[in-house]
Amino acid sequence: MINYDLIYPGNPDQYLDDLCERVSQGMDEGLLPVEVFRDDAVFRAEMERIFTRNWIFVAHTSEIPEKGDYVLRRIGIDKVIVTRDDDDQINVLLNHCRHRGSELCHQDKGNTRHFKCPYHGWVYRNNGDWAGAPHLKDAYGGPLDKKEWSLLRAAKVEAIHGFVFASLSEDVPPLREYLGGAAWMFDALFGLHPDGMKVLKEPERFVVKADWKSGAENFSGDAYHVSTAHLSASLSEFIPGVNQVSSLASGYDFGNGNSFIGHALPELIAPMFDLWGYPPEYRDQFDLSQLDEVQLEMLKKVPPTIGTVFPNFSFLRFPQPDVPGAMPIPFTSIRMWQPVAPGVMELWNYELEYAFLPESFHDKAYMAGQFGFGSGGIFEQDDTAVWEGIAKVAASPWALSKGMRLHYQQKRGGPDPDWKGPGEFHPSIYGEYSQERFWRRWVKEMTEGKRASKHAEPCDDQGGCQ
């Protein structure tokens, strides 16, 4: 690795400023500096400038349905406790005691009214308020100020169709406003039944020696890789014709690094695969009255199948067999590209389905998702293997010494001028326009985040930090 302290002595931010400028200028040429995928300085800055300043998905409400329920999750590299407190409110709490900083919670999920630190026994309510400590009178002379010593709380917590997002910064717009056109897409994806969706099992988690941005960027608009990286799915007849997927793919670009791939499923598979191929007896129970004409036409002809909401939330819904040779059925997966270290991420795979559907369908949908995108899935093995190669070249002394840049220069046909929905609709996925906008959003956050961090305020007496 390059020692940037020698190149930029006494001014470590200068390297990041220069890199952001090179990424921005590179995107004008369709080129990307390779070191963005594995670099200590970049990683540290991303954790501070991106993950503390944006809305980050942390859980689904179906995982914490009862008062006292909690799950242990991540925002960047921080472990957080997502709780439903005794007042039925959802809280996102830093999993560290305010006394000496030890981790409070070591269980992935549970139900409790209090969290007790294993080091000195400080106790917190499930809303994060300080509740007590051992030997209170002898050690402290009496109770402490519960607000001053409560757990650090996410500044904002909101949900859309059951998906809980948190922001560590007050300086973010409301979630729907933040999502923009992506919220319109959420309505079409997750708002088709009043009972909503539910997580079928605990999220699967596994370590991948690849940068978190490789997954996020890929899901934002890369169908080009399918005919090569996933050819085995066609050769094995698991997904016949998979090599045609990119030719029948379109793009929905909502700006700000939020974009989705759509596939002409009736043409790719069979006419009955509008609405992703949900069986007629189930789709008849969908309530489509809240959707506009553009959404209805989209679901009929080119439904969204893959997408990314910046920075690290991705979605996947596609018809697949639950066993080889079976009729494809739709499954829904949420992918979280959790950063761990430069060039290393944890991939969190949540499988969800509409809650009203019978358990027999849930079981089949879960198996379909696992066959394709579980940790041993036929597509997952392909993707993670090639992404690991990107992290390796990003650390290559040879590549770095030559200033290696990656190719983003596919020809573009432009958006459909007759599109009536939000953002842009591109009839062809070729052109890498979504990936370019992902990287421009990355530059924006890395640049604006630097300015914001210089004016950050310390933790306040409510347990929050600016």
TrEMBL record:
Domain Rieske: 55-166
One Gene Ontology term of the molecular function aspect: iron ion binding
InterPro entries for this protein: ARHD_Rieske_2Fe_2S, Rieske_2Fe-2S, Rieske_2Fe-2S_sf, Ring_hydroxy_dOase_asu_C_dom, Rng_hydr_dOase-A
Keywords associated with the record: 2Fe-2S, Aromatic hydrocarbons catabolism, Dioxygenase, Iron, Iron-sulfur, Metal-binding, NAD, Oxidoreductase
Family: Belongs to the bacterial ring-hydroxylating dioxygenase alpha subunit family.
Protein name: Rieske (2Fe-2S) protein
Organism per entry: Pseudomonas alkylphenolica
